[in-house]
Amino acid sequence: MIKKICLAVFALAMFSAQAQIEELEASPFTKVEQTVGLTKVILEYSRPAMRGRVIFGELVPFDKLYRTGANVNTKISFDKDVTINGKELKAGTYAIFTKPGKMAWEVIFYTDASNWGTPREWDYSKVALTITAKVKATFSPVESFTMSFKNLSDNAADLEISWENTSVNLNIGVYSDKEVVASIEKTLAGPTAQDYALAARYYLSKKDFDKALSLIDKAVDKSKGTRFDFSYSFRKAQLLAQKGDYKAAIKQATDAKSLAEKAGKEAVVKRIVGAIAGWSKN
User: Fold this and answer.
1) Are residues 173 and 195 in the same domain?
2) 3-class secondary structure, 100
3) Closest CA to 163 of 35, 42, 70, 34
4) If we measure between CA atoms, which residue out of 158, 133, 131 comes closest to residue 147?
5) How many structural domains is the chain composed of?
6) What are the residues whose beta carbons fall under 8 Å from the beta carbon of 138, sequence distance 6 or more?
7) With a threshold of 0.85, does the pTM exceed it?
8) Do 166 and 216 sit in the same domain of this protein?
9) Which of 143, 177, 211 is the endpoint of a domain?
10) Which of 159, 165, 177, 25 is nearest to 94 (CA)?
11) Mean pLDDT of successive 10-residue stretches along the chain, which has 282 residues
């Protein structure tokens, strides 16, 4: 009897597991990844539908904080600094909250994007940026809440928010031209001190001391007058010591010590002093 009961319970559990019904989402989740110039923008939001309801002024009251969509926070992420309608916004992830009005919307970029809906307690210190966007009428009714990127160019794109008969536009500006120019200037300037130092390390691992020394000399020269000049100078001293030229290593380390003292790097100074003491025994 007990065996039959156990079998019946097991069969019921199996039926329940197999008979689960997948529910349709009332407000489907959407994720859009859009590159604007050299900036990656990721938009995540859920899309409620009109379903015969009056939206703005009734379902979504005027001049009240609105989650801007449905379910979890509508989020937008930028991997580089941008501007929104000409105002600067740092790279990061933001919740987008709005206060829809009859003539204009207040659009708020909020640094805490972990809420479901609107925050229980509004924290003004988390408001990164607030923008006012004029309301425009759509050409035809928009059934599902929609956020889309339009008018893409090398330096900008429009983010359009539309639902029912209403739309608002935000202009996202990026710094593509500035970034391209910076990249060109960096490339034309040639290898950095760090590039030369890494190349020197490679040739040192191959025991090609002459090649390594010629490269570390370039790193030292490239770093002169920078806040890391002591570091490259000491690297040259270490390379000379590995080559077995302790006299030259001590002389170079002494120069590095002076640079480190000037930079106020006490820990580095102690390390250099210890190295000099060790090399002096050879």
Assistant:
1) no
2) strand
3) 70
4) 158
5) 2
6) 162, 164, 165, 166, 167
7) no
8) no
9) 177
10) 159
11) 49 50 77 94 96 95 95 94 94 96 97 90 95 95 96 94 96 82 74 89 90 91 89 93 92 92 92 92 86
